[in-house]
Amino acid sequence: MSAFPLRHVRDQEFVPWARMIADTYGLDRSEEELADQRAATDLGRTLAAFDGETPIAGSSVYRRMLTVPGGVLPVAGIASVGVAPTHRRRGLLTSMMRAHLTDLHERRREPIAALRPSEAGIYGRYGFGPATLGNRLRCDRRAVRFRPDTDFGDGTVLLYDADRARPHLERVYDRARATAVGWPDRQAVHWAVRLADHPHRRDGATSLRYAVHQEDGRATGYALYRHSSVPDGHGGSAGVVEVVELAALSRQAYAALWRFVAGIDLVTWIDYEGSVDEPLPHLLADPRAVRGTPVDRLWVRPVDVGRALAGRTYRLPLDLVLDVRDDFCPWNTGRHRLRAEGDTVVCEPTTAPADLRLGAAELGAAFLGGTALSTLAAAGRVEELRPGVLSRASAAFRSNREPWYPGGWAFPLY
Question: Residues 108-120: pLDDT tens digits?
Answer without folding.
Answer: 999 999 999 988 8
